[in-house]
Fold this protein.
Amino acid sequence: MSTRPRLARLSGALLAAACMALAPAMVSAAGPVQVRIENGSFAPATIKVARGETVRWRNVSVLDHDVRSALSGYFSSPGGAGGMSTGERFEYRFRQAGRFGYLCRLHPDMRGTVKVPIQVKRDGSTFRITVASGSVSGYRNRVQVQKPGSSTWQTISTTSSTSVRFTGSKSGTYRFRSAVKRVSNGALSGYSPVVSKTKP
């Protein structure tokens, strides 16, 4: 029997094994969510990312710009106001749920928003609300619920935990949201997109 068919089969098997070994790296190579800093705007101005996902801002403008969170101290590009020259980048990993406004300090009309949703699962009368992929020093997660038939929001917990549990006492639709609170001064981010779950 010729060795060529055997070599061809062996080469094919090695190639398949190599592709399988590389598959996880290829899946995770999607990389950060991209935002361009253009002349006069962030593009896109509003994005939605998962907890634990990274956003990368890149200055493609001919002008200097920067990125600074509206929630004091939460994230800020290095170098102060105007610290990002053409071609420079800044990344931040969003571990906590909320709505995070930001701006360019040199051009305050340039504004953007990053929305980070929560996840809610129900097991009988108990809801598990996942609000973070990890903690951020100096900041807590403020978790709220709107109960069936109510128009007001009630704080369940302000915590550094990544999730909280809540037990619903009656049937109907429960609505949940979360924001980030700065411990030192009580400042809050905006609230995450609302997630609704119905208890029969």
